[in-house]
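=== Given protein ===
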Amino acid sequence: MGYFEGFDVAGFWDDSAYALREYVEEAPPSRDLIASLEEELGGYRLPGSYIALMTAHNGGIPARVRFPMTEPTSWADDHIEITGIRGVGRMRPQSLGGEYGSLFWIDMWEYPDIGVYFADTPSAGHDMLALDYRGCGRHGEPTVVHVDQEDDFAITLVTENFEAFVMGLVDGSV
C-alpha cells in the first residue's frame, strides 16, 4: 500500500543541528527494531504510514509545524503546533524509545495510556500528540489526538490517521 503519494518527503524536514542531535535516527528502522519497539510501547502496531515516513527519514523537525483545527485547544483557537516527530529508534533523546520517548510521558508525566506519543509541542510537555488506539485496538489504524496535560488530560481529535496529519501540516508563519 502506497503512502504519501506525490508528497515531497525530503522537503518536509528541517534538518537543523538540533533536529539531527535530538530527533533524527541515523538509519531507517529495521523490521526487528520496529517489532521490538512496538512490543516495548505496549504492543501498539505503528501505522504503515508512520513506518513509511520513518523509513524515508527517521524522525525530525518538520518545515511545516502547524495543523489547522476546527475545535479550540489550550494551544490556540484554530491550530496546534508541534516541535518534532519522534523517529523509530532508541538512540536519540526524542525517539519513540529514547530518553524522552513515548513511555516517558506515560510513566513520568502520567499521560493516559491510549497509544503512542509521537510528537511534542512548544509547551515543553504540557500538551502532546498521540496515536490513539482506543477506537481500533492495538493493531488497528489509530487516530491522531491532542492531549492536554493542563486540562486534566483532555483529548481532542486532530485527524483520522497519521498520513492525514502529516499531509495537513502547514507553514507556521502567519
Remarks:
- The chain has a mean pLDDT of 94.
- The first helix runs from residue 9 to 12.
- The chain has one domain: 9-168.
- Residues 23 and 159 are 23 Å apart (CA to CA).
